[in-house]
Design a protein that fits this description.
heterodimer; A: 251 residues; alpha/beta; Rossmann fold; 2 domains; 6-stranded mixed beta sheet; 4-stranded antiparallel beta sheet; 39% helix; 24% strand; B: 375 residues; mainly alpha; two-stranded antiparallel sheet; 4 strands; 2% strand; globular
Chain lengths: 251, 375
């Protein structure tokens, strides 16, 4: 296969002595769909923070499209082609659905073009396309703050796609969604991979299973195991730290 | 949504008709003393527009707009002082004589030029705001820390200006009413009438300009920064640049406002940089309606006019009324008076007290109006 799109090399993040990530290595091939799971506190969100420039690692390097992301600011990394969806839906609540998407698809993202220029036909088409995918065409002029939780999740995913990133980082996209919405989201993410590279973080097992993708298990800031859902589920270490837990939670 | 936008546009239009009618009628109806007060308050509306841009839209609560307001005032006053300095010893403004200064300080020199002064009035405050803003925003100082920092800067500037007798007459400030402009005394009725007209026209231009800034995606970015700055970053925008630009624009508007206020009140002094005055600017916008622009204008003009009327009748009571007004708005009308009206506040109130029936909310009618609901 060609060279990896994203590569994390020996990433260590230390918060005043507490190691959130420890010598983490991971690489993603272009077009891949990858799921990352792990119990609470395993470092899943920190791992996204490092890639997107929110947290600077104590040690190690992040290579994206053959250049290092270390020390680059968030908006630069976003412009390089990494889009991120947050754990709880974060959309601009006081803007309409349409305007949210318009900000996501705008190029270039600089003050003067935004002040003087207008959206181009191509971008307007793209916005209606995106609204069709997430089924919010009839709500185009509604404020994003008035949408339901699930609709906000989808709007945020649509904004992400609208940025045309090469790599989509998706943090718990199905938290708080109904079963039906979860299924639809899984299908949506699967349809995005291939053209885009998608990395999904979650701990909803049903959802991960439906994604039908390679899985990386994080535990205490390290990669515990990697492989298909089958392999991972049968790994004794994984069962011990993670898959054993849902049984207890049921009580 | 479309309907409420139409209502909002109608309300704005009606308010504008009233404002423009009032502006045209005022010189005929009001004595010069009152006209001059109105002109001053119109000029304050310009600084309020800037506060609305940075606070109402972008969520940056600046308690230091007095800095830029005063800088604009000083730029205007320095030109006027130089323009009438020929009659004094050494050909420099009179106050220098009090401190034994014989040579004009270097930074006064360019203010001999009216064109330089006209540009400096908005450019200098704007640059100061831009530099200050950039340093603060780049270090991601936000929220209450930003507010405290702007207030601290205000105090720094106040002390700086207050202590410089030999350079800018310190605490006494610079008088403009006895200076000359086109051979006329600035404090005279004729010139004051002119300044009233200039203030009125500039308020309208400042409003058009602000409206243009926020009309489309640039304005949406400002609102997005207020809603969720981190999300803006991860969407690929650099919030620092946008915040710096809008803060510089607000600074420039404050400068224009300060210059107009100075020539109409007859003096600029460090009193323009006291803490309460900058807080009042925020109150005008809060009461008028954050994020509405027109509300900022109404808030500045109506509150200040009320202030002067109340203070004449009951000298000590204004502070209580202003405090009460602010509490009322914060608790009962968080969107300000205009925001409340735009969201159908009056109609809802009439419905509540039983004067009117809320016909427009019949679900059938609304559905029939909506394009997407048609089968």
């Amino acid at each position: 296969m060609s060279s990896p799109l994203l590569q994390l090399k020996d990433i260590t993040v230390s918060f005043e002595g507490f190691l959130a990530l420890e010598n983490l290595n991971l690489s993603l091939q272009p077009g891949e769909l990858r799921a990352v799971i792990g119990p609470n506190g395993a470092g899943k969100t920190t791992f996204l923070d490092v890639i997107t420039g929110k947290v600077r690692p104590t040690n190690g390097d992040v290579i994206f499209k053959e250049q290092s992301l270390i020390g680059k600011r968030e908006h630069r990394i976003a412009r390089l082609g990494i889009g991120r969806k947050f754990q709880s839906p974060r959309v601009f609540e006081n803007l309409s659905v349409y305007d949210n998407l318009a900000l996501a698809v705008a190029i270039p993202k600089k003050p003067f073009p935004l002040l003087l220029g207008r959206l181009q036909g191509l971008q307007i088409d793209r916005i209606s396309q995106l609204m069709n995918i997430i089924n919010l065409n009839s709500r185009a002029t509604s404020l994003a703050g008035s949408l339901s939780h699930g609709q906000k999740q989808w709007l945020e995913i649509a904004m992400l796609v609208g940025q045309k990133p090469d790599l989509l980082l998706v943090d718990e996209p199905v938290a708080g969604l109904t079963d039906e919405e979860t299924e639809l989201t899984a299908d949506l993410l699967k349809s995005l991979s291939g053209e885009n590279t998608v990395l999904v973080i979650d701990h909803d097992m049903e959802f991960i299973r439906r994604l039908d993708s390679p899985v990386t298990v994080l535990h205490q800031g390290q990669v515990l195991c990697e492989g298909s859902m089958e392999t991972v589920q049968n790994d004794p270490k994984v069962i011990e730290v993670y898959l054993g837990q849902p049984e207890e939670e049921k009580l | 949504m479309n309907n409420s936008r139409k209502t909002q546009a109608w309300i704005s239009l009606m308010i504008w008709v009233v404002i423009i009618a009032a502006i045209i009628a005022a010189p005929a109806v009001l004595p010069v003393f009152r006209l001059n007060l109105l002109g001053r308050y119109l000029s304050l509306a310009i600084v309020a527009l800037g506060v609305d841009l940075i606070w109402g839209f972008t969520g940056l609560l600046s308690l230091g707009q007095g800095i830029f307001f005063a800088l604009g005032g000083y730029c205007a006053a320095m030109y006027l002082q130089l323009n009438s300095a020929f009659e004094f010893p050494n050909g420099i403004p009179e106050f220098f004589g009090l401190y034994g200064v014989e040579k004009l300080p270097f930074f006064w020199e360019p203010f001999n030029s009216p064109i330089f002064a006209l540009i400096a009035i908005w450019l200098i405050p704007s640059l100061v705001a831009g530099v200050l803003g950039f340093l603060v925003f780049r270090n991601r100082i936000k929220g209450v820390y930003f507010s405290i920092l702007t207030q601290a800067s205000l105090l720094v500037f106040f002390n700086l200006f207050n202590g410089q007798q030999k350079l800018i007459n310190g605490t006494n400030g610079l008088k403009t009413d006895v200076t000359l402009l086109f051979g006329q005394m600035v404090g005279s009725d004729v010139v004051q009438r002119w300044f009233f007209w200039i203030s009125a026209v500039l308020v309208i231009f400042a409003w058009l300009f602000s409206k243009w800034i926020v009309r489309d995606r640039f304005g949406n970015i400002l609102i997005a920064i207020r809603d969720d700055e981190a999300r803006v970053r991860f969407t690929g925008y650099n919030p620092t640049i946008f915040k710096t630009i809008i803060f510089a624009i607000a600074g420039g508007l404050a400068g224009i406002s300060g210059a107009l206020y100075t020539v109409q009140s007859g003096i600029v002094s460090p009193q323009f940089m006291t803490v309460p005055f900058s807080i009042e600017m925020v109150i005008w916008v809060a009461v008028g309606g954050r994020g509405t622009l027109l509300g900022a204008i109404l808030g500045a003009v109506v509150i200040n006019y009320a202030k002067s009327l109340v203070s004449e009748a009951l000298p000590a009571s204004w502070m209580f009324i202003q405090g009460g007004l602010f509490i009322l708005v914060v608790t009962a009308l968080p969107e300000g008076v205009l925001g409340w009206i735009q969201r159908g506040g009056i109609r809802n109130l009439l419905v509540k007290v039983g004067f009117s029936r809320n016909i427009a909310t019949y679900p059938k009618l609304e559905i029939a109006d909506r394009e997407d609901m048609k089968v």
